Amino acid sequence: MAETIKDNRFTIDEDGSSGYIQIADDVVSSIIGLAVTEVDGVSKLTGDITRDLVAKLGKNSLSKGVRVIFDDEENLKVYVSIEIKFGYNIVDVSRAIQEKVKQSLLTMTGLECSTVNVKISSIDFSE
Length: 127
Known about the structure:
Blueprint: E1 2-5, E2 9-12, E3 21-24, H1 25-37, E4 42-45, H2 49-56, E5 66-70, E6 76-85, H3 90-109, E7 113-124
Parallel strand pairs: 6-7
Antiparallel strand pairs: 1-2, 2-3, 4-6, 5-6
Helix pairs in contact: 1-3
């Protein structure tokens, strides 16, 4: 149903008769980032130094801390890195992120996500 092509887009072909639909991976990453930040207990997405620098230069910060892999078996795997607010249960927040990401991707793109891996990179002690 979906495939990744070299220019970082997901191609969805429902029946093949009307043409095709391509979704840029930045769009998928932004959908995931928005879903993650909507979960109660998430302070922010966190990324590596390169992504932090790119974000400061004006690139979309919703994709910071999000990595999407579409493998040969047509499995969509998502990796997110977050900062969690102090006082929230890490397991509960992580499970909520997993469900929210899967549901958001399915609702907005029709892509089914097989795996959502959550990395807690830090704790937000403010507030």
